[in-house]
Amino acid sequence: MGWVLGAACSGCGFAQGDLRLGASHAEIGQHDVCHRVLVLASCCGAIQDVLLYMGQPPRAVPCERCQAALDVAAAHRYRISTLKGEVLTAHRCPRCGVDALEFRRTGSFV
Predict the structure, then answer these.
(1) DSSP state of 63
(2) pLDDT tens track of the chain, all 110 residues?
(3) Under DSSP, is residue 76 helix (H, G, I), strand (E, B) or coil?
(4) What is the DSSP letter of 98?
(5) 35 CB contacts (<8 Å, ≥6 apart)?
């Protein structure tokens, strides 16, 4: 089960919606542990959700907009759901680079 998120930067006005974090029942059924993470697509200045499989090396993922290879390493992922709770504010904006990006839950999926 996962969240549908929107992102907005109070610094530059960047906004993006329909981002998925987590996994649907169908995705979980395809593999033991897979989930969607949010990744900075620095090639296009956007955020993309990417399906990753735990315990396996990250596969090559093309950018949805320009088809450049996305770097899905942990350093390029947005850490929103952590063991300590949710972190929805103070993330790095893909457009202006300021830590003014805020995520908000707009829905969920199963």
Answers:
(1) -
(2) 789 999 999 999 999 999 999 988 777 776 667 888 999 998 999 999 998 887 778 778 999 999 999 999 889 999 998 878 899 999 999 999 999 999 999 999 88
(3) helix
(4) -
(5) 2, 21, 22, 23, 27, 51, 52, 54
Give kind and range of the element (H or E) at residue 26: helix 25-30
The answer to whether the beta carbons of residues 5 and 23 sit under 8 Å apart is no
CA–CA gap between residue 91 and residue 45 (Å, rounded): 14
What letter represents residue 24's amino acid? S
Q: Which of 49, 51, 35, 22 is nearest to 109 (CA)?
A: 22
- Any idea what the Cα angle at residue 64 is, between residues 59 and 70, rounded to 5°? 40
Look up the pTM and report it. Answer: 0.86
Give the Cα separation of 110 and 98 in Å (integer): 33
Residue type, 91: H
